Amino acid sequence: MKDEKRMRFVSAEQVARLAGVSRSAVSRTFTPGASVAPATREKVLHAAEQLGYHVNDLARGVLANQSRLVGIVATRPEIGFRAHLTAALTKALIRRGSIPILINTGQTEEELLAAQKMLIGHRAEATIIISGSPPASFFDLAQRNGQPLVVIGRSEPDADHVRAGNSEASRNAANVFFAAGRRRLAVVGSQSGTPSIAEREGAFLSAAQALGAEVTAARGPDSDYDGGIAAARELFSAGEKPDAVFCANDQIAFGLMDFVRIELGLRIPEDVAVIGFDDVPEAAWLSYGLTTFRQDPATMAARSVELLERRLASLDAAPGYERVIPELVVRRSFVPA
């Protein structure tokens, strides 16, 4: 019979034996602020280094009924701005001393609640949600377990939240198009209907109509590159073609730009001006040169962690709110007048 190989982490007992001290001395050595004689501490640290010992944080979290885990709940975290926001969040949380755990989930109530129960089961210190619209039961379960929530990209009355200035940027897009003499405007969003996408669409439409411009809207099946192509095909298939298009994110803009240039032979910005939203790195590529509103993922992550810190310091405080106004980054696809 073959020997079964099992994972065996170095234990505190092994460190104690090698150092010639008690098990409690090892525990005190690795507990911040605990009292331990300098000579004992030196022996324990030397033995731990020899053996490759690290503290069992999971066990400590169980004893304290809390861990340093912070859950990040996201749908398709590999796509567009979410990928950069996820990366920025993990870096910010690690600098804080937290252990970020990414849960890649769907947007249904069942999927979001399953992710939350998983994090509560592991005694996660907090949860940060960067996509999806959590149901009321999500917030109720978090409150009953005393688990802080931070929501990014939407306003939630029962949770701390961070969001971009979607309406301000969208109105600005309509204004700069109109000031440049563009009169046939369009906005491209998606059928996904996320709060951020819906806010950008609505604010642009309202602003364009108030200016007296012709304005239309098109929506692809999702807020990604393929969705941009599908929306462009719908937008340019009938009637008078728009001469300026505001896209609800950069991925949509990339799909639209490739379609109008390659399939329709139109020039950007001479025939069609384009503005996006997010300023992902690809927006600066020579093949796009996309004028877009910049969301800084590092700033969004930092504001989220600040809200988390405030919540942990005062669990009963009123929900906090941070709004980050995007700035227009001008490139070739549209240069304001």
UniProtKB/TrEMBL annotation:
The keyword GTP-binding appears for this protein: no
Pfam family membership, one: LacI
Limits of the HTH lacI-type domain: 10-64
GO MF: DNA binding
Domain of life: Bacteria
Keywords: DNA-binding, Repressor, Transcription, Transcription regulation
Extent of the signal sequence: none
InterPro entries, per database record: HTH_LacI, LacI/GalR-like_sensor, Lambda_DNA-bd_dom_sf, Peripla_BP_I
Gene3D superfamilies, sorted: 3.40.50.2300, lambda repressor-like DNA-binding domains
Protein name (record): LacI family DNA-binding transcriptional regulator
The organism of origin for this protein: Rhizobium puerariae
